Amino acid sequence: MKIGAPKEIFPGEARVAMTPDSAVQLKKLGYDCAIETGAGAAAGFADEAYEAVGVEIVKTAAQLWKAVDVVVKVRGPEEVEAKRLAKGQTLISFFWPAQNEALLELCKSRGATVIAMDMVPRISRAQKMDALSSMANIAGYRAVIEAGNNFGRFFTGQVTAAGKVPPAKVLVVGAGVAGLAAIGTATSLGAVVHAFDVRPEVAEQIESMGAEFVFLEFEQSQDGAATGGYAAPSSPEFREKQLAKFRELAPEMDIVITTALIPGRPAPKLWTADMVAMMKRGSVIVDLAAERGGNCDLTVPDEKIVSPNGVTVIGYTDFPSRMATQASTLYSTNIRHMMTDLTPNKDGVVVQNMEDDVIRGATVTHDGEITFPPPPPKVKAIAAAKPKPKEKELTAEEKRAAEIAAFKKATQQQVTLLGVGTLVMLAIGAVAPADFMSHFIVFALACFVGFQVIWNVSHALHTPLMAVTNAISGIIILGALLQIGSGSGLVVFLAAIAVLIASINIVGGFLVTRRMLAMFQKS
Question: Any idea what DSSP says for residue 125?
């Protein structure tokens, strides 16, 4: 069978569904590959790059649709493209079946099989095909870049000879894939990042990326997680509490990035006009939900506007397309993984296994029937977090009592160790010669000091501390070298072993330390 990628006809769309690298992998599955002339040019992939890996270049879209068995696209088909589908042909692209009923009926009437990449279930096994996450990741990153391009200050705080520059304060609304990508980018640029999500179980993910989770005091139980890992609609009471919190944060924030979407519904309005009016002049709002109406009242899809009080509101809907090379690479990889599941025998023949959860979930038309909506996933993408018990806050008297008890316990342990050590020393001294005891006392004191130094250090520092300690303690090699010239063969043998072990300590200690320090270097 043959797979073909036509040139995207949606205005401004620069992505392509097949790259030279993905074509190589598709050929390994047994498929022949074809692409329309110039389909990858806007994404930085020339026709010559495709020809070099054995991809057939087809002159027109009409010829391509007629020649291939599987059509792979980025955007959903326009009506003129859907009419080119033939019975038994397979189309793989974004489709949004809930919002395109007429297009769904048209594809059904053509007898084609349509696999919607936006319908891939969000379960662990399907992560490699999750094109929504791939594109959302790029959109979140690009949103921060666009915000920085329109923000008049540094993201990170600086202290210079010309004065102090405070860090930018960023609020990310919605901690899905796009939100987490935005959080990661903003924190890496040095901003102070706050993030909010209706799903309490993502709080740990937000905090692990260096952002502060915005907690909402709400008495009633509110679980914002829906099946498939998406957010569910909030109750009116929760929404009012949420908006009140945003109004409290609005005057402080320099940059707001909104990513909230609910499948099959218009984007919820979370950043109202009065919140925009509260923000400082020069602030920036990036609305990643602009294509579905926007989370901000002032958002205009595909445009950048400036509010009366000087706040820039960016409503672009083509963030992934603005990074077309990277977006095409990730999306074509998602397509390739989908084709791997559709080709279990790697013989270049599509097997539409409707018993497979992933294939069934993504298929919206098959054998002249509409198969949307699919059955719900068997498991939730994110398990609900168990509430953590709140630690009791101690009073000043209780804290003081706990500190005294801990001090007494530590003192008792140290006195016991010293007592036992003294008795052992006395017992050995009663039978050992004086020369031996002078060396033995130094050895025992060294062990004691080393034990105290290492034992009282945080566990996180044990490895680097031990590495440096080993390197420094290698000074014992000097004692071993002094004994090498001894007339006793046994002493020479023991000294040689000491030199070997000390050398390993010295070299290994510095190597481990060097490797650990390298972990914190960008280069």
Answer: G
Phi, psi of 304 (to 5 degrees): -115, 120
List the catalytic residue out of 22, 25, 133, 242. 133
Question: Which residues are CB-contacts of 362 (< 8 A; sequence separation ≥ 6)?
Answer: 115, 116, 117, 119, 120, 121, 129, 338, 374
pLDDT band at 227 (very low <50, low <70, confident <90, very high): very low
Decide if 234 is catalytic: no
Query: Catalytic annotation on 122?
Result: yes
DSSP states of 56-95 as a string? EEES-HHHHHHH-SEEE-SSPPPHHHHTT--TT-EEEE--
Out of 99-113, 366-380, 441-455, 492-506, pick the least confident: 441-455
Closest CA to 81 of 54, 110, 101, 38: 110
Backbone φ, ψ for residue 194 (5° rounding): -115, 150
Contacts of residue 270, Cβ cutoff 8 Å, sequence gap at least 6: 173, 242, 243, 246, 258, 260, 295, 296
Return the pLDDT at 522. 59
pLDDT recorded at residue 17: 97
Active site annotation includes 523: no
* pTM greater than 0.90: no
Clarify whether 199 is annotated catalytic.
no
The phi, psi pair for 517, rounded to 5°, reads -65, -35
Which member of 63, 127, 473, 483 is catalytic? 127
Mean pLDDT, residues 153-176 taken together: 92
Q: Is 127 a catalytic residue?
A: yes
Terminal CA-CA length for the chain: 46
Of the candidates 32, 118, 130, 287, the residue annotated as catalytic is: 130
Residue 296: CB atoms within 10 A of its CB come to 28
Task: Supply the mean pLDDT for the chain.
Answer: 88
Question: Cβ(198)–Cβ(268) under 8 Å?
Answer: no
